[in-house]
Amino acid sequence: MPPIVLYGDRVSVKITREFKQLVNISIAAGKFILLHPDYDLIREAMRLEMFEDERLEDFEVHNWQFEVDEVITYDQGEILFFYALLELSCRIFLCEIGDDLKKMAIDSGETDAEEFVRVRSFFLRQAQDFLQNIRGCYESDEEFQELLAKIDQLNSLA
Question: How far is it, in rounded angstroms, from Cα 4 to Cα 136?
């Protein structure tokens, strides 16, 4: 995972292929979330206002503007959104929703079972590293603490 540099309320990250993949998988998971609001976990995340569809599009557009070896900067709102998206995406991959996602991806011919498991494992490792880095940067921030409280509420559902 590339180093994260905190400047005031902004975070800068040098984009690597791995980081770009992490972002792309997160965005794809976000799109899945939008298309499948009937799962309890997703419905609860929406109720807690952890995920907003308009922020996903803005986040996607912002990230498309940068290539490998460039430095991307996120404002605090983007980081909180990305953090919530990663948390939710990880939970999706680790529960029955992930099983459904895997089946849909295989049935559509987008991937096979082995590749899905490889991508999921990569994503979970990268997400864990990034989440820990962000937690270290924002642990004393009030808005971040509010997001963590919502994540705890979401955890009580699972």
Answer: 10
